[in-house]
Amino acid sequence: MWIDERHLMGWFKRMMWVVALILCGVLFAAGEAAAELQSVEVGGSLRVRGRIFSNNWETTSTPGGLRIPDELLRRRAIGPWGTRSRFAWDSSASNSEYVEQDTRLHVRAGFSRDIESLVEFKTYHRWEDGSGGAWRMDDEFAGNPARPDLWQAYVQADNLGLDGLRLRLGRQELELGKGWLISHRRGIIGRTFDGARLTYEQDDWGLDAWAVKYRDSGLVSLDGDQELYTVEGSYTGWDPAALEVYWIGVRDSERADDTGFAPPAAWIEDWRGVNQYDTTFLHTAGARVHGATGPVDYDLEAATQWGYAGGLGQYFRLGRYGDNRARFDGNWAADAEVGYTLENMAWRPRFGIGGAYFSGQDNRDISFGEWLNPLRRPEASISFNRIQSFFSYSFLMDLTKDMTNFHQIRANAVAHPHDQVTLDWSLAYYGVNETFDRPVSTRVGRYRIPLAPGLPFVTESSASDIGLVSHFILRYQYSPDWNINFGWERLFTGQGLRDGNFTHRQGLEFSGGTARDNADLIYIDTSVRF
Q1: What pTM was computed for the model?
Q2: 283-303 pLDDT, tens per residue?
Q3: pLDDT in tens, 14-33
Q4: Which parts of 190-240 are beta strand (E)?
Q5: 3-state class of 432 per DSSP?
Q6: Closest residue by Cα to residue 431 from 501, 373, 330
Q7: Exposed (0-12), middle (13-18) or buried (19+): which is 446, by Cβ within 10 Å?
């Protein structure tokens, strides 16, 4: 890169806030603060979802159960959780059954001079199967207490000096394009963003820029802050296709320190070039083309990433120190689908084919020469980072929407037997891109017996076959404000799910099971707006 990523991020950060402050000044100078209340809207929504998982989890929290003993992986930089896995793929594992409820209430106020404000509260509950089969309310699930939280609170000014120019300040929902990499719609829990959004829209093109905070450590120091910046341009003036191009910048200044040494020991680390981590800067550039021509519709999106990954490199340790040279460079991803609709046929069926690819790295192997080298430095394994994706490629495998280092090939069919009823069925195959080199072993029943326990460079590759997923959904849209969905997803597990590979938590978490039994998810999901 001929432009330093840190300078680019710093320049964009300063420009976004300068523009926002200037526009705020223009707003008040023009007397916008005296805008009068013209309308008030009170509304909300209620969503309830029940799910039953079978043969899926050993535990739903990271890191899970140990799959390969640490002593068999000596002098190998594995990552933050080693080879622990949450997944079981085992009929002897307990089923997970629960019902979730999301409730929201908002007040929207419209003022003169194109001023609008919104305040929205949200509460999340989870119902779990307690002891004795009694259903109870779990108010503290996943750190989401069952009390009202401020979901959105912003003020918005439209046509701010120019027709089509909009500024929104405060906590808000944000989504980039279809939500492939960034969205507030992360399952039923979701998330919102604190910051500024500046939008300029014309008839067939537009620009959209955000500057938001993930986490703020305070006014005294910037260390520990996490920030997100985006710029998106869109063009819709060509009938067959709409075009979107974007850049995403993520800055994570949480300080990485392997030892906490003070001078003069820290000076020795400087001289050795260890424990020197750059601030994490993740840059993502992407484009999307989508549209329809007659009965054919299509959607293609691709992105590439680069930047400093020291915040992740610190987890790949040999001895005291991690990899302070880790980068995101070279990672890329794509998702594409083409569909064909038979409008003149009964039920108006649509048939589609598509696929996805998320690049991965697995540098966790070790050669004989590296095993002998006492001065060897660790090498991180940095896969494509999906940031805050809305897409769940499989509820059984990708429930947290952070699965990477995999490829998918899919086919689907959609039919409408009634104006209010939709049938949706898909079949998809999954495979691992960069497999893990596990210690060579032989299987005896349910157990693996290591054949060279003192020689970590003697390995065998895990299988790349993840499996085949069938997903059926019945959707009933009773009215524009109320719907109900029934779904069944079945995973026919491949050997790669038992062997284990690093595909979860953005490629940092192992996903090996204790067996390879097929898994199922059955769910019901209903929502109403009022």
Answers
A1: 0.89
A2: 999 999 999 999 999 999 999
A3: 555 555 555 555 555 544 45
A4: 193-201, 205-215, 226-238
A5: strand
A6: 501
A7: exposed
